[in-house]
Structures are given as structure tokens and as C-alpha cells.
Amino acid sequence: MIVTDEGHFQTDELTINMGPQHPSTHGVLRVELLSDGEIVKGAYPDIGYLHRCFEKHSENREYVQAIPFADRMDYVAAMNMELGMCLAIEKLLDHEIPERAQYIRVIVAELNRIASHLLAVGTYCIDIGAFTPFLYAFRDREQILRIFEEICGARLLYNYIRPGGVSRDLSRGMVEKIREFCKYFRPLLEEFSQLVSGNIIFVKRTANIGVVPLDKAISYGFSGPNLRGSGYSWDLRKDMPYCGYEKFDFNVCVGEGENGVIGDSWNRYYVRVKEMLESIKILEQAVEQIPDGLHTAKVPKALKPSGEVYYATECPRGALGYYIVADGTKKAHRIKAKSPCFISTSSIDEMCSGMMLADVVAYLGSIDIVLGEVDR
Amino acid sequence: MSVRTTFVPFVVPQADPPGTEIKDIKIEDIAAKLKSVCGADSVERVETEHKGDPFIVLKTEKLHEVVNYLRDDSEFRYIYPSVIAATDFLAVEEGEEKKPGRIEVVYVLFSLKNKHQLTLKVCLDRKEPEVQSVADLYRAANWYERECFDMVGVHFKGHPDHKRILLPEDWVGYPLRKDYEFPQEYNGMKVPL
Questions:
Q1: Judging by beta carbons within 10 Å of its beta carbon (0-12, 13-18, 19+), is residue A366 exposed, middle or buried?
Q2: Do B53 and A308 touch (CB under 8 A)?
Q3: Residue A248: CA atoms inside 13 Å, Cβ hemisphere, count?
């Protein structure tokens, strides 16, 4: 720092590397920060460290064989990844999906949404500097992972939903266990929210930080909790229903700016907390209404769809869409996954410019990116 | 040393309130409207026969004008970019149908007001695939187009930050091209297959 003749401090710009091994980047993301003192002048995200060629792999495999690769995109919400892919393939196939299979799909998707949101808000608290809520969140997430382990044998990467239905029926007593989980989780969610949402330190760190104006959020193609945090009531489960979501009664949660401006980091966090409650509502209705019947339709072993489709579903991190070009053979000509985290990451440059260095972490955590999905 | 700028600070259109019902807009009507507004040669053909989403194939030079019109026109308002993707097709030389090779760039746009999804396409030459960038119309287009360049090798004219995104900058070739050959090594390291 140099003091000039006029008595002003002359500052210098400094480039800082954040990541790729930074605990708050939630994976291997490198952000090149240009800083002037404590002020961020520019933030250039560098991605691709976790690129595992999902699109290239799926072109070289049969459709069913490509589903495990979809699991590994967003590895904390794998059920939702599979569901989107199977629905896109089914759109080209014209198979009637049994009612029970649809209900099972909704149940596992919503359970996974809760697990994913718990991880999102738990790790967000760690980023901000609170350690205890993380333990609470992971304690409850563990219950869901145990349920999944019983349903399909895997805790994280399931390969459970298949074109035509699901790979196996719910085991005996499973419905009862999910009902018990709902009963168990409701008060604990309340407790978690009381612990964190109104906490003055948490509010000071997140409210009015990283405000995404609605117009820009739409131009960026934001979706899911990030778009709803900006105050826009848009949920594909409600607005473009799939998989029988129109049968369930639930609300779309939007940011209302209780502690600051609409569209700030706190709103995005709070939308996730409120959404968990809505997922519980859907789960309770689904376990009451689930009919008997087949868990999968009779589909041929080798699927040979043809046509072109873009199909998006509401995943925990936003609308994840699959663009599939099928040419009537066993392998897809092209599968492109549109990742909501990819565009959230692209917004870092614009949204972080001008904020304080420590707030970059608050913004990064609030858009809730999973690098497996950004890089695919 | 300065950080490279990645976004163009253009004015984004105002958000519409979400529509109440899914409007059934016929893609032929959109194509007819485009022909009358952006010129009769702007639309090459409309495909509705195949399964899945119907799409409009646009003349490559007219793409930017058409997308701009669809975004700003009060009737359509396709302000939400769903995805931009590129697909490579090799030339078909055997059999009855002979088709030249092409690269298709698909633009899936969404109108929140009408709750309607529209698929636009341009067909490019495989040797020199080049199309006008729409990064000055949608913020999201910046990275989508970079990914198309990275994976399929499409050049976007007027893109503010035209370089690879997922692969290293010194990577050779475009992996999602159908005639891509896997490299044996990269910077002296063996590439695992």
C-alpha cells in the first residue's frame, strides 16, 4: 500500500485462487478471484476438474446401461437424476407406466429431495461457520439413506428407477417405515429451522448478500430453489406436472424477503427449508394412497426408441433436463444433460463482483452447486 | 493481471408472471409468424412427424434475428433459455438415403407466460460449423455455447469468451464428434481408456 501525495491510499489488485481444494466450494471448483483489498472485482470460475464424460459414455452404451452414469452426475440426489432420464426415454417409447410404479418413483424422489436439501443447508451452515446444524442435518439424512439401503441395496448411487418402472418393489413394511420417518422428521425440521433460520449471526452473514434480481435469474436460466428464492413461483412439479404430481396437494415455496431483499442468500436457504416440509406433505399423501399392482411395465430388454426430446424434471437443485436424440438403435445418438448447477456456476462472475471476499463463500453455498453435476 | 470478463452486461428482459395454464401453441403458427416478420427465407422447414418435440429448422444467418424477435415479442416472450446443445451427424453414404454430414445446434427456449417450450435448430456444415452467438440475448448462452465449442467444435461468432470450458485449453479435437479418435496420450501422460 502506498500513500500518494493527496493523502489517498493507492491499492493494488491481487489475484487469489479459491480452490480447487477449498472446503467451501463443495467439490473441485476453482474460482480465480480478482480482489482489491477486501472487495472482489471479478470472479472467474474454472470448471472441468470432475469431468467424467457422461455424454460420451452414454453414446456408447445401451439406454439402461447409461442410467448408472446419470446417478453419478448429482451424486447426492441420484434418484432424481435417474427419474428424469427414464421419463425422457419413456416419452419416446409410449409405455404405460403402472400406477404403483409412479407412486414409488414419487416417494423415492421426494425422500431424496429431503436428503439433498438437508445436505445443502447443513454444509451451508458449515460454510458460514456454524458446525452443530450440520450434525443435526446429517443425523436425519442418515435415516433416509437407511431407507434407501433397504429399498434398493445402495446408499448413494441407486440405479433403481428404470425405463418402465422401478427395478424392484418396495419391501414389506417399507410403507410403514416411511410413514414413521415423516412423523419423526417433522418436529426435527422445526427444531433445525428454529436453530438456524432466525439466528442473528446466520441472518447477518446471509441476508442482503448475493442478491440475484429476478430478471437476471431468468436470463441465466436459474431454476428450482434458486429461482424461487428470487421470488418467482415456478415449480415443474406444479406447473408442468409429470409422474402424477398433479394428484398431490403441496405449495410452491418462494422467497419473501423476510430478513432483507428478495433473492438474497438467506431466501435461497429458507426456500430449501420450507421445501422439505412440502416434501414431507407429499410423502404422507403418497404412502396413504399407494395402490397395489405391478412395480414395472413389461418393456423389452433392448430399448430402441427413436425421435428427439428435451425433457426436464424438478430436481433438488433445479430443473434438470435431458436432450435425447434417438435413432432407433439400441444406443442413443446423443444424450445431453442440462445441469442447473452449470448455470448457477456461470452466474458467480456477475453476482460476486463488488462483494466482500468472505461473502463469496456465502453466495457459493447458497446456490448449492454439486460439482459432479456441473462437470458431468 | 486482470481476470477475464465472462459476461456481457446487456439489459435483460423483464420477467413475466408465470402463466396459469399450459397453452397449446401450434409450431406451424409460430413458423408462419416468423416467415412474415423475419423474412420468408428465415424458416427452412418444420418437423412434426417424429416422436418427441417438433422443431423449426432456421436459416443459419437468420438465427440471431429470430431468437431476438421471439424473446422480445409480447405474444411469445421466450425469455427463459432451457438449453443449447450441438449434435454431430456423419454423412450417410450407403443404402437408399444419402445424406451429407451436418452439425445441428438446437436451442430449446421456454415461454414462462405461455408455458410453452419451443425447439429451434440450425444445421451447419461439418467442416466449418459457424453460427452467430446469442450470448448477448441470454446470460446462460455464454456457457452453453462454450460447451458446444468444447465438445462438438461449433464456432460462435461474436461470443465474448470463446474458449474451452470443461476440457483443458490445449486439448486436441472435439470429443462428441462422431469421428473423434481417442488420443493415446496428453502432455506425455497416457490417457486411460
A1: buried
A2: yes
A3: 29
Residue B6 has pLDDT above 90, yes or no: no
Q: In which element (H, E) is residue B31 found?
A: helix B27-38
Residue B66 region by backbone torsions, left for phi larger than 0, else alpha for psi between -120 and 50, else beta: alpha
Identify whether the C-beta of residue A285 lies closer than 8 Å to the C-beta of residue A249.
Answer: yes
Contact B151 A55 (CB under 8 A): yes
Shortest distance between the Cα of B34 and any Cα of chain A, in A, equals: 22
Please give the CATH architecture assigned to the domain spanning A51-375: Orthogonal Bundle (1.10)
d(CA A235, CA A251): 10
How far is it, in rounded angstroms, from Cα B78 to Cα B81?
A: 8
CB A92 within 8 A of CB A299: no
Q: Is the pLDDT of residue A83 over 70?
A: yes
Locate the chain A residue with the closest alpha carbon to B136. A219
Q: CATH homologous superfamily of domain B27-129?
A: NADH:ubiquinone oxidoreductase Nqo5 subunit (3.30.460.80)
Average pLDDT for A47-76: 88
Domain ranges of chain B: 27-129
pLDDT > 90? residue A114: yes
Nearest partner of A161 among A96, A245, A90, A94, judged by Cα? A90
The label of the residue with cell 461473502 reads: A359
3-class secondary structure, B143: helix
Cα dihedral A212, A22, A276, A314 in deg (nearest 10): 60
Query: Alpha helices, DSSP H only, in chain A?
Result: 54-59, 63-71, 78-93, 99-128, 132-152, 174-196, 200-206, 214-219, 225-229, 236-239, 265-289, 340-346, 348-352, 357-367, 371-375
| Structure-block grid coordinates of residue A63 | 439406454
Coil, helix or strand at residue A103: helix
A133-147, A179-193, A275-289, A297-311: the lowest-pLDDT one: A297-311
Query: How far, CA to CA in Å, does A219 sit from each of A216, B90, B149?
Result: 5, 34, 21
For B48, the grid coordinates are 412434426
Q: Which of residues 110-169 of A touch B (CB under 8 A)?
A: none
Query: What is the tens place of the pLDDT at every residue in A121-172?
Result: 998 888 888 888 889 999 999 999 999 999 888 888 888 998 888 888 888 8
Query: In angstroms, what separates the C-alpha of B1 from chain A's closest C-alpha?
Result: 8
Per the CB < 8 Å rule, is B117 touching A33?
A: no
Euclidean distance between CA atoms A43 and A46, whole angstroms: 10
The neighbour count for residue B179, using CB atoms within 10 Å, is: 10
- Which of A240, A248, A255 has its CA nearest to residue B114? A240
Q: How far is B62 from chain A (nearest CA, A)?
A: 21
- What value does the mean pLDDT take over residues B160-173? 85
pLDDT band at B70 (very low <50, low <70, confident <90, very high): confident
Own/partner pairs, A141-147, CB within 8 angstroms, 24+ separation:
A141/A114, A141/A115, A143/A181, A143/A184, A143/A185, A144/A111, A144/A112, A144/A114, A144/A115, A144/A118, A144/A181, A145/A115, A147/A111, A147/A174, A147/A177, A147/A178, A147/A181
